[in-house]
Amino acid sequence: MSKTNPGNYFEDFTLGQVIEHATPRTITEGDRALYTALYPTRFAIPSSAEFAASVGLDPHPVEELIGFHVAFGKTVPDVSLNAVANLGYAECRFHRPVVPGDTLRTSSEVIGLKQNSNGKTGVVYVRSTATNQRGEVAIDWARWVMVHKRDQDAPAPETVVPELTDAVAAEDLVIPDGLDFTGYDFAAAGEPHRWDDYEVGEKIDHVDGVTLTDPEHMLATRLWQNTAKVHFNTEARPDGTRLVYGGHVISMARALSFNGLANAQLIAAINAGAHTAPALAGDTVYAWSEVLDKADVDAPGVGALRLRLVATKGRDESMMLRTEDGKYAEGVLLDLDYWALAPQA
Amino acid sequence: MSKTNPGNYFEDFTLGQVIEHATPRTITEGDRALYTALYPTRFAIPSSAEFAASVGLDPHPVEELIGFHVAFGKTVPDVSLNAVANLGYAECRFHRPVVPGDTLRTSSEVIGLKQNSNGKTGVVYVRSTATNQRGEVAIDWARWVMVHKRDQDAPAPETVVPELTDAVAAEDLVIPDGLDFTGYDFAAAGEPHRWDDYEVGEKIDHVDGVTLTDPEHMLATRLWQNTAKVHFNTEARPDGTRLVYGGHVISMARALSFNGLANAQLIAAINAGAHTAPALAGDTVYAWSEVLDKADVDAPGVGALRLRLVATKGRDESMMLRTEDGKYAEGVLLDLDYWALAPQA
Amino acid sequence: MSKTNPGNYFEDFTLGQVIEHATPRTITEGDRALYTALYPTRFAIPSSAEFAASVGLDPHPVEELIGFHVAFGKTVPDVSLNAVANLGYAECRFHRPVVPGDTLRTSSEVIGLKQNSNGKTGVVYVRSTATNQRGEVAIDWARWVMVHKRDQDAPAPETVVPELTDAVAAEDLVIPDGLDFTGYDFAAAGEPHRWDDYEVGEKIDHVDGVTLTDPEHMLATRLWQNTAKVHFNTEARPDGTRLVYGGHVISMARALSFNGLANAQLIAAINAGAHTAPALAGDTVYAWSEVLDKADVDAPGVGALRLRLVATKGRDESMMLRTEDGKYAEGVLLDLDYWALAPQA
To answer: Is residue B1 pLDDT above 70, yes or no?
Structure first.
């Protein structure tokens, strides 16, 4: 019998089931350097240990998306190896900064199941939790994927669809212990704009673009130990292209957003994310943001900005998300809704 | 007179000669991160400091092949710059884990010489030893290469061909101090299969494939400070291709073997290796393994598996090593014979 | 109003103005590993913590050009985002080794201004200083760039052109505290040639070549947080090529110069640098050096070599810098004049 991982099929999941994902992964300064090499990030907190300490963060946190990609990558072999589609995620909260030396492991609980009417596939809802070496929660999130059935004649489970919020409520955001933006150094951070300067509804064209290459997205995706075949193997897709991991586009867009959102320093939550079109090597990725909401939070000098981050293939100075018929506009690759923490004044 | 390194020719080697190779190299967490980005490795020991400590390995070892590639790379400028062919290696043992902060240096002793009958080339046998900053042996191995003569009229040395074993005997394997697999966490490691579950003769198709690119193999090869021209310079080969460093294929295949051999955690020895065909960018590398032998070793819960690791260009589900005439089957890139350590039960 | 950085135009600069550049950046072991992966460097001091300590350098310095690229990259958004041309740099001195854990920040003072006669552009001279987390100077240098005017009718400032030296005088070189080459291990360093063996006027062909790729130069340029569009975006230049960052060519040539200058270990100063032609992916970069001067310095066993480092597209064994009409010879990419420190005898 084969010793290789066949992945789980729809009927392998049961409500309440808890899956411990392999393999735990220790975060290092090497991850920080590679992240800097892969994405044009210049956010002052992950870039500078001195800056981080000056706002109360010591030891020196890595970019939040490093933790997210690593934690998320762990779930792939068990949850989405046989996925037809990644349908969405929600309620992702960053509970504490991840720092070099932290070892992350991820487990998932099945919180919903719904067989599709065609009898061939079903939707699996999981809540995943990444914990560090002290057993503290680092990141958690909900996610739902459409998965093949192994046997179409297998009986359908009772349908349970979890209630998930559209967005993490501002009062549920976890603010890192000790975070204090009252002495924030705007010159060092790169832009003068503070939380006060952003208005709900405001859009920001981040101007810069980066043309994707295959070696770079493969390096990134492996770094997160995400081993989905389509990212690496030109024989895995009929047209011989390698699909760019969606997280690569998230990180690219987030880094590009520095130009206009340099002070939206820390990601506190991801409310929702849609990968609306495939990205491939040769595509030039641009980004724009929209301020969706603002909220006070309970930390000195800190405010929360709810932002829509949109990645596009080719620059769209009109910053159009959807066409009149409600579909995503051509060129939109990513529609990400998240909360960031910024200096208030 | 030129100050650049002309490399050594056959007549520059003498029996018993010891060559101190430049330059020592300190291993860091950056190497671990880059290795993870370059190869789809997920073995729990190098991935997680917590997992490593739980099996008795603290500080946190890096992948054994990092040490091997670095140590091997040192020998290239002195031993194989003028090589016609790398003929083989044998008796490679890993004496202790390499951890960040270790500085490796390599020296080689000439243990055999044999001029070829054409008078133009000869075979040089060396035993190379990599030591750490405390002078302890980290890795040693024997290797033989065919090297050009500078002067065809130079007299042939006495022929001495060392006796090298086909495989390191199980009782000669060095088990890392403190290694203890009795509390091994199979869920964290990613697969349930233990040493007991593998049978001699069993073959495992590792399923996944990775398409090679030039930037990636160049990054890897430079990381090991291996500067052989053919890997980097499109003007160095008539067809303008860059030859992929054989060690890149070893690491790729080893990482792919996680899928089916996740618990073959530590490489204890390399018995033999043949690079049977060149690998180039665009090739999609797959791997399969065969269990050649099993042995008890003197450490709690630890068993040794002798494995043949075969890398192929394109997937060969038939897992055929050689054709009926004894030649390597088409598509075979690498035939590596090694010992790994696995949890026994 | 746009929140993104429009960059500074000629009339935004005033004599004596001091600009604090964003964002500070902490150097890590990850940077060392990536540098090793990106360039074929084998210099013993940055490669080996043991070797570095043996010549008095502990903690373990990173390659000087890591500090230079990071410090320089900081100035791009403020100084050269609207540059027509980078005209030159001078008087760059390395005041102390940069080690992992150091956080560099850069500020620039405007030391000269000269509007061009066309009224459309002007030359801005700045002296930039990178300091570490203790406020100590790590690197400083002068640089001049031609920048667009925003408004051609804006009045011209008084012309001030600073006096800059052709080369840092040997007595002004800063020697790292504690540097002592009296016990220098030439075998470990890789070559027997010492300061005494080099003669003024001597040229060295470094033999080896590396073919450039887009992913590699983008990884490098991002690592230094240099975000000039032309390096990353195929839509930023009419021909769809990505221009290779000049610093990538400097580092490549410097690394190639190991073969013949392995003991020119530490860069103490950069006297001048000209990027004489664009470099693109597919170009094969070679290097040669010329000894311009030699000087004693005040440290045990240490001598200074003033070197011209020339990078070429394609190998030029004749090592011709300029044609008879005084122009740079075809294929010359870089003409860099620097001081290195070598063991004297």
So the answer is: no
Read off the amino acid at residue A11.
Answer: E
Q: Measured between CB atoms, does A223 come within 8 Å of chain B?
A: yes
Which of chain B's residues have a Cβ under 8 Å away from the Cβ of A101? 49
Q: Do B98 and B129 share a domain, yes or no?
A: yes
B-facing residues of A in 158-217 (CB < 8 A) are 213-215
CB–CB contact B22 C32 (8 Å): no
Average pLDDT, rounded, for chain A: 96
Number of H helices, E strands in chain C: 8, 12
Which residues in chain C touch residue A28, judged by CB atoms under 8 angstroms apart?
A: 30
Strand blocks (E) in chain C: 18-20, 25-26, 83-94, 103-115, 121-131, 137-148, 203-205, 210-211, 266-275, 284-296, 302-313, 332-343
* B277: exposed, middle or buried (Cβ count in 10 Å: 0-12, 13-18, 19+): middle
Domain that holds residue A146: 1-27+62-164
- Provide the domain count of chain C: 2
DSSP for B245-302? PHHHHHHHHHHHTHHHHTT--EEEEEEEEEE-S---TTPEEEEEEEEEEEEE-SSTTE
C212 and C331 in a common domain: yes
Query: Tokens standing for B125?
Result: 């046998």
Q: Is C30 on the interface with B (CB under 8 A)?
A: yes
Task: Report if residue C39 sits inside a domain.
Answer: no
Domain boundary among C164, C193, C210: C164
Q: What is the pLDDT of residues C64-74, one digit of tens each?
A: 999 999 999 99
Residue C121 shares a structural domain with residue C216: no
Exposure of B174 by Cβ count < 10 A (0-12 exposed, 13-18 middle, 19+ buried)?
A: middle
Is C50 domain-assigned?
no
Question: Do A23 and B42 lie within an 8 Å CB cutoff?
Answer: yes
What gap in Å lies between CA C25 and CA C299, rounded to an integer?
A: 31
Chain B residues within an 8 Å CB radius of A29: 29-30, 33
Cβ neighbours, 10 Å, residue B298? 9
Q: Same structural domain for residues B103 and B250?
A: no
Q: What are phi and psi of B234, to 5 degrees?
A: -70, -10
Task: Pinpoint the alpha helices (H) of C257-313.
Answer: 258-261
> pLDDT tens, C18-76?
999 999 999 999 999 999 999 999 999 999 999 999 999 999 999 999 999 999 999 99
Shared-domain flag, residues B144 and B171:
no
Q: Is residue A34 part of a domain?
A: no
CB atoms within 10 A of CB A131: 20
Q: Is residue B269 part of a domain?
A: yes
**Closest Cα in chain B, distance from residue C104 (Å):** 19
Chain-centre distance for alpha carbon B326: 24
| pLDDT reading at A161 higher than 90 | yes
Cα separation, B311 vs A274, in Å, equals 37
Distance of CA C84 to the CA centre of its chain: 20
**Judgement on whether residues A141 and A220 belong to the same structural domain of the protein:** no
Give the containing element (helix H, strand E) for B221. Answer: helix B214-223
Contacts of A25 in chain B (CB under 8 A): 47-48
Residue indicated by tokens 């490399």: B7
Contacts of B50 in chain A (CB under 8 A): 24, 26, 103, 133
Instruction: Pick from B5, B17, B23 the residue to mutate for testing the C interface (most C CBs within 10 Å).
Output: B23
What's the CATH number where C118 sits?
Answer: 3.10.129.10
d(CA A188, CA A181) in angstroms, rounded, equals 13
CB–CB contact A24 B213 (8 Å): no
ipTM above 0.85, yes or no: yes
A178 and A135 co-located in one domain = no
Residue A107, chain C, CB below 8 Å: the answer is no
Cβ contact (<8 Å) for B32 and A29?
A: no
Q: Which of C100, C132, C164 is the last residue of a domain?
A: C164
Q: Are residues A158 and A176 part of one domain?
A: no
